[in-house]
UniProtKB/TrEMBL annotation, chain A:
Residues 152-296 form the Aspartate/ornithine carbamoyltransferase Asp/Orn-binding domain. Heterododecamer (2C3:3R2) of six catalytic PyrB chains organized as two trimers (C3), and six regulatory PyrI chains organized as three dimers (R2). Carbamoyl phosphate binds at R54, T55, R104, H132, Q135, G259, P260. It catalyses: carbamoyl phosphate + L-aspartate = N-carbamoyl-L-aspartate + phosphate + H(+). This is Aspartate carbamoyltransferase. Its EC number is 2.1.3.2. GO terms for molecular function: aspartate carbamoyltransferase activity. It comes from Caldicellulosiruptor naganoensis. L-aspartate binds at K82, R165, R218. Belongs to the aspartate/ornithine carbamoyltransferase superfamily. ATCase family.
Automatic annotation (TrEMBL), chain B:
This is Dihydroorotase. The active site is at D306. Gene3D superfamilies: Metal-dependent hydrolases (3.20.20.140), Urease, subunit C, domain 1 (2.30.40.10). Binds 2 Zn(2+) ions per subunit. Zn(2+) 1 binds at H61, H63, D153, D306. Its cofactor is Zn(2+). The gene is pyrC.
Amino acid sequence: MKHLLGLKDLSKEEILKILNLAKDMKLILKSETKKTPHLQGYSAVLLFYENSTRTRTSFELAAKFMGANTTSISVVTSSVQKGESLLDTVRTLEALKTDILIVRHSFSGAPHFIAKNCSFSVINAGDGMNEHPTQALLDMFTIRERLGKLENLKVAIIGDILHSRVARSNIWGLKKFGNEITVYGPQTLLPPFIDKFANVASSLEEAVTNKDVVIDLRIQLERQKRGLISSKYEYYKFFGLNEDISKFISKDTLIMHPGPVNRGVEISSDIMNLPNCTIEEQVTNGIAVRMAVLYLCTRKGAS
Amino acid sequence: MILIKNADIINGLDKSVKRADILIVGNKIEKIGIDIKIQNPDLQTIDASGKYVMPSFTDIHCHLRDPGFEYKEDIRSGSLSAVAGGFTTICCMPNTNPPIDNRAMVAYVRYRAREVSPIEVLPIGAITKGLNGEELSEIGLMREEGIVAISDDGKCVMNANLMRNALLYAKDFSIPVISHCEDTNLSEGGQMNLGFVSTMLGLKGIPREAESVIVARDILLAKETKAHLHITHVSTKESVELIRRAKEWGVNVTCDTCPHYISLTEEEVIGFNTNAKVNPPLRTKEDVEALTEAIKEGVIDCITTDHAPHHKDEKNVEFNLAPSGTIGFETAFAVLYTHLVKNRGFEISKLVELLSINPRRIVNLKPNVIVENQKANLVIIDPNREWEVKEEDIISKSKNSVFLGKKLTSYVETVIYEGKILKKDGEIKC
Ligand SMILES: [Zn+2]
């Protein structure tokens, strides 16, 4: 594996390889020293055109635990402000002898564009509305760890499907294992032809009932200004995992959220405190999954 | 003196194909007849056995980028690209820098074209000053200077009242208003067709209604004003349906589509291919079918290329940042031949209608016909040649063709304009 651009083009076997390796990496995370030499001598650059403390920190720690030299470039300090093109940035990174680039970009396909124009490995840390592969991998890792399997599950994804790269990556990844995906959200936040990729529930109640997993998505509050939703309160009442809907969610259903959570908008604090809610675990698993991905991307020939 | 032997001639007056020889003397067709024999030391003989000869083509929608963006294309390079594709009259859109929105700018394009272009270049004037959609430009003065139509192409005149006035005003000067139909509130931020592929790629989509709602609006305005509305680069099934009804209604409306809309779908974008980023966006198979059917029925009057050159560096960026547009002159005929004649069994004469006859009619130009005593403006087509569109073969300054790598059948081999050979056996001679 040279790059990780998305789960759409990854095979089931490749996904399993990452998840299996992540299991070993999690053991390292649990050990006292949290140090492996796997990436010693490698330089990993984090290039973030969008703010994301969580994902960036997770990748950075993953790379550091494995001994890589890391450096982080965020949009405010980068020369993008001075009008440097992404292609020029790529050339500079090349000259700086980058081995792995972890990139977050607000445009779909930006990591693909970089991968086409560089010799180093590119890991997509979220591109526009397209994919967020490591998030989906960590979700899949968490599901397999909790439920003991990754096949033939009923999974609901709730919220802003239209803009969600997390939803897309999860749909691509989970469908490869024969899982049944149902989505639900306001009509303004459902993309066209989503019914070709997943079932579309007609109510929140229907969406969450009899599910093995419910993945709740973060809502960007500026969608309100763009006329896609009317208010936080209304969203919570009709589309949030609120007190009314909690009775339809089984105690065995995993409740997941990529974070950070808008409490009282997407999900109630009560539900977040349930033992079947995995939000914090997902964060820990994220590091393990990213360690696995980083490792595999530096072992280009040996697949 | 040129003698074209054994050509299958489609003269542009009727649909028949007749085999004959054509003798060109000076800028005119001197004689058309069976087995013409001439003894003259200056005679050039072209053997056209198995090839078609038809009137050269006219494109009423292209971008030459001159002045202001000569690094993408200029009047000469654009003209040569047009020659390569068999076009000898091209009408260029006014979205240059500065825009063609006044008499002096029209004069510049006309003057410059006479200096550097081997073919006829006719400017299209802006509807509004600065293409700002606010005030009518001096359409009458531009008409005197030689514009053949007005358009704010690239932009839509979003103010319906202003569009109504433009239609009324253009009537005084007997020119069509060419409308780029795009409701910019609906298309804002869109990167490709809103649909299956945009959902798959996570790109913001442009709904098909961004086009069709303005098509409907402009049809209603044309109905009321009785002005000549020409809707350009039609891309959706719904637009076609609206135009079909408008024609039944007796509205003075004509329209065109481009080769890419009848041959490609939104799937070209997969892989974030910026050469497939065009505006309006590539649509779906259903739209391709509807457009093809509309061509057959005559609802679509002509084909334009919307030749839109961009520099390689401008296209080699993130998909969101890439400008829209594909070049089109050099592939237009072969795409139409491949998709309409070869794959769908259209008569070859249909292409003459779409590329030679109807576009001239729309902008009130005298027809090109292959008849004795008429100007020798013609092309020789090899219908059997198969070729692949390759960057290194492109004549245009820009190489941003959505057809790169595609295999096409038929080739514009020779181009003659006013008796001069501009392209022969695939080589540009001007
Ligand atoms: Zn246009």
